[in-house]
């Protein structure tokens, strides 16, 4: 069946339907990772977004039960150049196509994804619509223009958990492929985590480092997390514009003063920055991939990182008592921060990888040590 | 970290002659490294015995030693140059092994030179398989279970714990020479024996087999701040058991989940740390069990490699250049990415296309060779193709191979398959099964055959172990073909045509599937508005802007070529390396590019060989990594023309490949620079050419052409035996033979060639015992001709020019003959209106000079001659082609040399058990070396040494020659006696020598009893073998003698002329000894210095 992708700027592409039939709209973004499409499909940070893979052959190794980053797929739509007819890998439990259909994800294949990427790179990310079957492109373009813009909308409420729960390792166990973590001989540490759309691999990593995690909804007041007296508090990744998340920002403010180790990733990092008095802004086309070089300023070492964000922290907006710990070597944007007085630190990128390199796994250890020093 | 300031002068070691397993990828890497070091203000001293390289161009290094790559020679260079450090990681295994020797001999300590790029320990741990395995075990990384053995008894003890099949690999041999897979005790005995004798340290590793597992490679880099990046992942389509050099490979890896891929990356990082490669690139090979994901490490190469060259071309990330900078102390984040300019080199390239590499073999040259593919590399070249999908890249790769019908993977409508893939449609299924189950150079054709016969994918998977994902792609290609054949060309819908083109089908392929001609298909395609778009290779999948027009064609919407309105010259490359058309032609293409770029033209390169300098995006203004087929070339030129600005092309430099396109391109209205295609044809067309020579009054061996066996007989009767026979339009003496009687002639006409009116067989009188010479000249539009040099062959006519050693200036030819040759050359050049290069081969017999052939194009000898004379002939010719005159370029006289320069070929025989080592009119060498000195003797000795032939200074010489050669061997024998050698000979030869007062000990032939000559060689009683092929007569044992000698590394000379030269060389070795001198010094000597 044929399918059409239409963008708000009037450009449209015709291709083949590669997932569920129907129409879908969202912010069209591109990801340059060459592996890990299943992790990407299931990453809640992609809520409201239609993801284009720049890697042209997608679906080759199918999908595996062990690889999702959340309960199900999260993207608004999916775009690939060439869809694999079969799944060939010993870990695979099915084809990409069946997975997309089962999860009702509208997808398109066979279009010039490089041309599309170049459009997004030069014009910036924009809203778009995928429709399968015979559809009128101009109608789709209108629809794209009518979509709400990501700036200013709260996408977290759509992906956070309803009520607090303890993470059960059994839900999605650590796999043999992960880096080996230094297991603690002392008692397990207890982490209270804000779920803004948390990737499971963060939980798997904490677990590997000997931590028990209780997960809280984004709207839970800080006091609720602190009552149990956790060894540390974690702010997760998540979708959309951080600036509108007033409830999250105010709880973050409490946490910073609570004198408890705090660690944030991605959206969590942006929320902490806002709470510390900084500003965030929208990037032209964001960072989405698994090859971005990030420099840790203290050691001068470069990490190859997994990235997925459309907003960033404005370095000039940061108060004195916040120091920049990591910078992106592509465009100099802020990748990591640390509070000079409080045990608070956070990174814009994804130390939990999934997909991507494990270079930044040391950050989990760093958080654990931070907690142990006080436990 | 900033650059080190303590390093001022660096010695770079090149990889020597082109051999199987070590080809021009090391010229590409080495040239990059030298340029990078120089750009950093360092003084670069280079040693490489291979003159046919860009890196040995005098301007690339400050001092260039074209000298043998031995520890003795390197010590003299080190003593002379006192370098601060040696960079051993860009010269392949050769350079690494040398570095290890220099270390073990204490030479590094003695002269206080440091190794940069890789330390001695790192090299040892990586290259010594035992140390490597132990290091891996120590950090908990699995390797196949293995044992080291130093003797056969130890070997047999190791069988039980390991179990069959067993992988056998000698340590410190190149490309796995002497290795193999043994499935049973017999094979085991044979391969282990061979391995033990071939390993320089007489050690082999016996290893558990993981045949059939998936094979992967990672190209990684590390800097001295311990930053680590993966440049590229490569997946082998052929599973474990077939050498990566012989495997169809694809980048990036396509069948691994992110978790598996990241695990492999983590392991790679731990390996490079443990091995201790502090700066630079490494290649790490893995095997993964397809059933449970179990991963083992196969090996690590702590240096740039064939795969790193492939990775550089596949990603646009120049590994060798960056490695050189890292060796100087920079860190990755301090080095900018050339292509994006704004981002640093400390990142991992991500690609939005698929790259496929396909090897090319030369088995047609070695009919007796075993064509099965194992752990020992056998291919001589490769092509790379780029597409947006695997199917497209794969099909483009086969279009690039230049196998004629062999480009065709499918059965022709009707059935018969091309000769190259001699899998015939009528082959029975069991033959097909065997060809699928036992890897061989034709397996891929068999695979398509099987799909065409409707074999189940699972069955094919069971036989080949090739991943189902790839098999599915092949199956889809076969389905597309079937759809097309159902409807035929007329019936093809726009959608189907689009699908075919997007799947990489060439117009020609579609045509021959549908029994239509290429032109008709093109017309149909154009009518449907289908033409290729060009996309950029940018290291970042379009995340950033690319400033480098490094392009590939694909059937997509958006074209990023944006051609300029500048005046352009398109240079057609020479495609995959093969015997007869190798690096020499790429060298010439690169020179054309350099010269014309300097002169302000926009240079555009089209080529598909990933090993070369010509496909370095630095070499030209615009690089199209595309097949050299008419379809692809014409499309690129059309696209470039759209930019405005005049477009013309150079077809003289890439060997036969572009010449075959010359006429069609001219017909398509494209301007061809230099000598006209008609002149080229005039020189290639025997009838026309003979007439021309006749008119010029220049002698040519009596000749004729035949399109049938009957005609051949007539010609033979007319001119008389012996005869040289060959097909027309070939390079490297393909299918060429010398026949001494009717029977042999008939056999040749029946079996060896398919003669036809458009492809007649050429028949020449064979000039026996004639002296052969090669002449390269440049001619301009005014008719001025400058002769670059007259090269006298050491071996007589009848040994292919590419296979005989040659020397400039001539050392035996009479002055008047030399003058006459100059005169002939000038007149021929003018008569052909040559504008550019011309190569002529002459033979002198009984005071008459005959023309053997004229090639109005770049030749194999141009680089060597350029190094000897110091004048870059290819550059000169390129400028002449765009209108300059030789006078304007300051070339008014024929070129001179100071000193004597000998070029000697190297052969791949050692890799092909059972293949005879004798030479003939069909070229068999893969590469060449040059030796320079003040006397012929020393120069020849050096060239031999550089080619790996260690001539003895004393000991015993075994002599066995044909009756025809007996008279001439007397003087040689006498000289050897004079040099203090003992003589050992077979009865006939011995008696003949005795009759001439030279006593020689008689030794049994192999079939006469024992101890026979073979035993004597094995017992190290013989240091030199002189054994001429016995012409008409054939003793079945002399091949055995030659091979035994080769395996024992006892020099074996198969021509008397070669033997006579060896006598000079031995005398020189014993009296003069060997000294080293840089090209720059030789060139400075030349009184008149030409400025191109
Ligand atoms: N244990 C093994 N089982 C099966 N095949 C092997 C094994 N080890 C090596 N091979 C095959 O042999 C090839 C050459 O081995 P490698 O260690 O890479 O030697 P080289 O130094 O010649 O590259 C590999 O590419 C692989 O296909
Ligand atoms: N008439 C001949 N007599 C003796 N040797 C010949 C003759 N013709 C060709 N040869 C030998 O065959 C070799 C290859 O022939 P050539 O014409 O050079 O073919 P190619 O085009 O492959 O170089 C020559 O180098 C020469 O040694
Ligand atoms: Mg290898
Ligand atoms: Mg090796």
Description:
The complex is a heterodimer of chains A (375) and B (1092). Chain A has 375 residues and is of the alpha/beta class. Chain A is built from nine helices and 19 strands. In chain A, strands 10-12-11-13-14-19-18-17-15-16 form a ten-stranded mixed β-sheet, sandwiched between helices. In chain A, strands 1-2-8-6-4-3-9 form a seven-stranded mixed β-barrel. The radius of gyration of chain A is 20 Å and the shape is globular. The model of chain A has no long low-confidence stretch (mean pLDDT 96). Chain B has 1092 residues and is of the alpha/beta class. In chain B, the strands form seven sheets. Chain B has a seven-stranded antiparallel β-sheet with strand order 14-13-10-11-12-15-16, sandwiched between helices. In chain B, strands 17-18-21-20-19-22-23 form a seven-stranded mixed β-sheet, with helices on both faces. A seven-stranded antiparallel β-sheet of chain B has the order 32-31-28-29-30-33-34. In chain B, helix 34 (1038-1047) links the parallel strand 38 and strand 39. Chains A and B meet through helix 3 and strand 15 of A and helix 9 and helix 16 of B. Bound molecules: adenosine-5'-diphosphate (2 copies) and magnesium ion (MG) (2 copies). Residues 299, 301 of chain B line the site of one magnesium ion.
Characterize this entry briefly.
By secondary structure, chain A is α/β, with parallel strands linked by helices. Chain A is built from 9 helices and 19 strands.
Strand tally of chain A: 19
Shape of chain A: globular
**Class inferred from helices and paired strands of chain B:** alpha/beta
Label the overall shape of chain B. globular
Strand order of the largest sheet of chain B: 14-13-10-11-12-15-16
Hey, roughly how much beta strand do the residues of chain B contain? 15-25%
Q: How far is the N terminus from the C terminus of chain A? A: 59 Å
- Mean of all residue-level pLDDT scores of chain A: 96
Total of DSSP H or I helical runs spanning 4+ residues of chain A: 9
How would a textbook summarize the main sheet of chain B? 7 strands, antiparallel
Order of helices and strands of chain A: EEEHEEEEHEHEHEEHEHEHEHEEEEEH
What do the pLDDT scores of chain B average to? Answer: 93
Biggest sheet strand order of chain A reads 10-12-11-13-14-19-18-17-15-16
Secondary-structure-based class of chain A equals: alpha/beta
User: How far apart are the first and last residues' alpha carbons of chain B, in Å?
Assistant: 42 Å
> Oligomer, anyone?
heterodimer
Radius of gyration of chain A: 20 Å
Bound molecules: adenosine-5'-diphosphate, magnesium ion
The two chains with the largest interface, and their residue counts, are: A-B, 59 and 55 residues
């Amino acid at each position: 069946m044929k399918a059409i992708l239409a963008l708000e700027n009037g450009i449209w592409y015709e291709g083949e339907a590669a997932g569920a039939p129907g129409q879908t709209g969202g912010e069209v973004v591109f990801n340059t990772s060459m592996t890990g499409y299943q992790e990407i499909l299931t990453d809640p940070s992609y809520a409201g977004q239609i993801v284009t893979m720049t890697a042209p052959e997608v679906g080759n190794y199918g999908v595996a039960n062990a690889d999702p980053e959340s309960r199900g797929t999260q993207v608004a739509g999916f775009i690939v150049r060439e869809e694999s007819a079969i799944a060939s890998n010993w870990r695979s439990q099915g084809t990409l196509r069946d997975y997309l259909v089962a999860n009702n994800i509208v997808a398109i294949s066979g279009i010039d994804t490089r041309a599309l990427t170049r459009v997004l790179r030069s014009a910036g990310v924009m809203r778009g619509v995928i429709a399968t079957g015979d559809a009128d492109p101009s109608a789709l373009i209108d629809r794209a223009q009518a979509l709400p813009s990501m700036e200013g909308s709260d996408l977290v409420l759509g992906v956070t958990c309803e009520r607090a729960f303890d993470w059960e390792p059994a839900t999605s166990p650590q796999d043999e492929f992960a880096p080996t973590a230094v297991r603690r001989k002392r008692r397990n540490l207890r982490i209270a985590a804000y779920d803004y759309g948390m990737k499971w691999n963060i939980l798997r990593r904490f677990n590997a480092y000997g931590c028990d995690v209780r997960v809280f909804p984004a709207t839970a007041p800080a006091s609720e997390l602190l009552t149990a007296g956790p060894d540390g508090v974690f702010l997760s990744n998540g979708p959309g514009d951080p600036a509108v998340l007033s409830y999250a920002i105010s709880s973050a403010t409490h946490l910073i003063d609570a004198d408890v180790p705090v660690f944030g990733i991605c959206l969590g990092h942006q929320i902490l920055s806002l709470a510390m008095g900084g500003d965030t802004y929208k990037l032209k086309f964001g960072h989405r991939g698994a090859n971005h070089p990030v420099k840790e300023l203290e050691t001068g070492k470069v990490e190859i990182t997994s990235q997925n964000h459309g907003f960033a922290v404005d370095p000039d907006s940061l108060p004195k008592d916040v120091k920049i710990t990591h910078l992106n070597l592509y465009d100099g944007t802020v990748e990591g921060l640390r509070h000079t007085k409080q045990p608070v630190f956070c990174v814009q990128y994804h130390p939990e990888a999934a997909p991507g390199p494990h270079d930044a796994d040391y950050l989990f250890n760093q958080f654990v040590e931070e907690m142990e020093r006080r436990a | 970290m900033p650059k080190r300031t303590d390093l001022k002068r660096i010695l770079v070691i090149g990889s020597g002659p082109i051999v199987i397993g070590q080809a021009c990828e090391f010229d590409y890497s080495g040239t990059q490294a030298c340029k990078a070091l120089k750009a950093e203000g360092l003084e670069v001293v280079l040693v490489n015995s291979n003159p046919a390289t860009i890196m040995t161009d005098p301007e690339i290094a400050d001092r260039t030693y074209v000298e043998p790559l031995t520890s003795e020679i390197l010590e003299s260079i080190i003593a002379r140059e006192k370098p601060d450090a040696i960079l051993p990681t860009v010269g392949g295994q050769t350079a690494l092994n040398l570095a290890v020797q220099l270390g073990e001999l204490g030479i590094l300590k003695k002269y206080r030179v440091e190794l940069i790029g890789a330390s001695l320990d790192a090299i040892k741990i990586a290259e010594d398989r035992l140390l490597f395995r132990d290091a891996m075990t120590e950090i908990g990384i699995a390797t196949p279970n293995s044992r080291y053995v130093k003797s056969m008894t130890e070997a047999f003890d190791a069988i039980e714990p390991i179990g069959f099949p067993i992988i056998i690999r000698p340590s410190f041999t190149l490309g796995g020479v002497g290795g193999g897979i043994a499935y049973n005790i017999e094979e085991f005995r044979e391969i282990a024996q061979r391995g033990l004798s071939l390993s320089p340290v007489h050690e082999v590793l016996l290893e558990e087999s993981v045949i059939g597992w998936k094979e992967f490679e990672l190209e990684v880099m590390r800097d001295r701040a311990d930053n680590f990046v993966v440049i590229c992942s490569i997946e082998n389509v052929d599973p474990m058991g077939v050498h990566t050099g012989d495997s169809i490979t694809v980048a990036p890896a396509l069948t691994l989940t992110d978790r598996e891929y990241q695990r492999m990356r983590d392991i790679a990082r731990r390996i490079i740390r443990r091995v201790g490669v502090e700066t630079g690139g490494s290649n790490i090979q893995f095997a993964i069990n397809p059933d449970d994901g179990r991963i083992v490490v196969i090996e690590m190469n702590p240096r740039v490699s064939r795969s790193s060259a492939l990775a550089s071309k596949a990603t646009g990330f120049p590994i060798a250049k960056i490695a050189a900078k890292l060796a100087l102390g920079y860190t990755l984040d301090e080095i900018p990415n050339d292509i994006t300019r704004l981002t640093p080199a400390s990142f991992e390239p991500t690609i939005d296309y698929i790259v496929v590499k396909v090897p090319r073999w030369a088995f047609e040259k070695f009919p007796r060779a075993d064509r099965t593919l194992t752990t020992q590399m056998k291919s001589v070249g490769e092509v790379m193709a780029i597409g947006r999908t695997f199917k497209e890249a794969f099909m483009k790769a086969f279009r690039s191979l230049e196998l004629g019908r062999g480009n065709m993977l499918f059965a022709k409508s009707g059935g018969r398959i091309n000769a190259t893939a001699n899998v015939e449609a009528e082959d029975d299924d069991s033959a097909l099964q065997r060809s699928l189950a036992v890897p061989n150079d034709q397996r891929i054709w068999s695979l398509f055959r099987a799909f065409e016969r409707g074999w189940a994918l699972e069955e094919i998977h069971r036989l080949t172990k090739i991943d189902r994902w790839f098999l599915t792609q092949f199956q889809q290609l076969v389905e597309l073909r079937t759809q097309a054949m159902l409807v035929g060309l007329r019936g093809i819908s726009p959608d189907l045509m689009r699908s075919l083109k997007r799947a990489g089908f060439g117009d020609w392929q579609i045509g021959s599937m549908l029994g239509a001609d290429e032109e008709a298909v093109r017309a149909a395609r154009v009518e449907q508005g289908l033409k290729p778009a060009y996309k950029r290779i940018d290291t970042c999948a379009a995340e950033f802007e690319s400033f480098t027009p490094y392009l590939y064609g694909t059937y997509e919407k958006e074209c990023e070529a944006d051609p300029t309105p500048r005046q352009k010259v398109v240079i057609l490359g020479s495609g995959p390396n093969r015997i007869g058309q190798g690096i020499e032609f790429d060298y010439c293409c690169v020179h054309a590019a350099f010269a014309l770029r300097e002169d302000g033209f926009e240079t555009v390169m089209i080529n598909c060989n990933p090993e070369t300098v010509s496909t370095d995006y630095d070499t030209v203004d615009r690089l199209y990594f595309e097949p050299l087929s008419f379809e692809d070339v014409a499309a690129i030129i059309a696209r470039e023309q759209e930019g405005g600005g005049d477009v013309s092309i150079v077809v003289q430099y890439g060997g036969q490949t572009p010449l075959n396109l010359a006429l069609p391109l001219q017909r398509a209205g494209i301007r061809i620079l230099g000598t006209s295609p008609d002149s080229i044809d005039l020189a290639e067309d025997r009838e026309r050419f003979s007439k021309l020579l006749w008119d010029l009054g220049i002698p040519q061996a009596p000749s004729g052409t035949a399109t049938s066996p009957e005609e051949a007989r007539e010609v033979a009767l007319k001119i008389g035996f012996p005869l040289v026979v060959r097909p027309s339009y070939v390079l490297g003496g393909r299918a060429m033979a010398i026949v001494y009687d009717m029977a042999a002639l008939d056999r040749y006409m029946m079996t060896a060639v398919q003669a036809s009116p458009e492809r007649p067989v050429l028949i020449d009188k064979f000039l026996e015992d004639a002296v052969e010479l090669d002449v390269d000249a440049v001619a301009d539009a005014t008719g001025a001709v400058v002769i670059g040099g007259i090269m006298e062959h050491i071996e007589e006519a009848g040994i292919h020019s590419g296979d005989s050693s040659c020397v400039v200036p001539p050392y035996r030819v009479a002055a008047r003959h030399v003058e006459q040759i100059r005169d002939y050359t000038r007149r021929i050049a003018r008569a052909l209106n040559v504008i550019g290069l011309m190569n002529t081969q002459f033979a002198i017999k009984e005071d008459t000079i005959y023309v053997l052939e004229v090639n109005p194009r770049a030749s194999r000898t141009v680089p060597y001659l350029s190094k000897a004379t110091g004048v870059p002939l290819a550059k000169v010719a390129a400028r002449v082609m765009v209108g300059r005159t030789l006078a304007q370029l300051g070339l008014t006289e024929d070129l001179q040399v100071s000193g004597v320069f000998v070029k000697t070929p190297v052969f791949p025989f050692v890799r092909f058990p059972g293949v005879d080592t004798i030479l003939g009119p069909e070229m068999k060498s893969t590469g060449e070396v040059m030796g320079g000195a003040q006397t012929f003797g020393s120069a020849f000795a050096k060239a031999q040494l550089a080619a790996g032939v260690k001539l003895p200074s004393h000991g015993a010489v075994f002599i066995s020659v044909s009756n025809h050669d007996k008279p001439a061997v007397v003087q040689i024998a006498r000289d050897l006696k004079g040099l203090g050698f003992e003589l050992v000979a077979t009865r006939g030869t011995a008696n003949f020598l005795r009759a001439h007062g030279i006593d020689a000990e008689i030794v049994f032939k192999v079939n006469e009893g024992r101890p026979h000559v073979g035993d004597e060689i094995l017992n190290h009683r013989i240091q030199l073998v002189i054994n001429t092929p016995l012409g008409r007569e054939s003793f079945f044992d002399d091949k055995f003698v030659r091979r035994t000698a080769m395996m024992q590394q006892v020099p074996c000379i198969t021509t008397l002329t070669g033997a006579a030269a060896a006598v000079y060389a031995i005398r020189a070795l014993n009296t003069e000894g060997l000294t080293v001198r840089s090209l720059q010094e030789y060139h400075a000597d030349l009184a008149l210095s030409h400025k191109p």
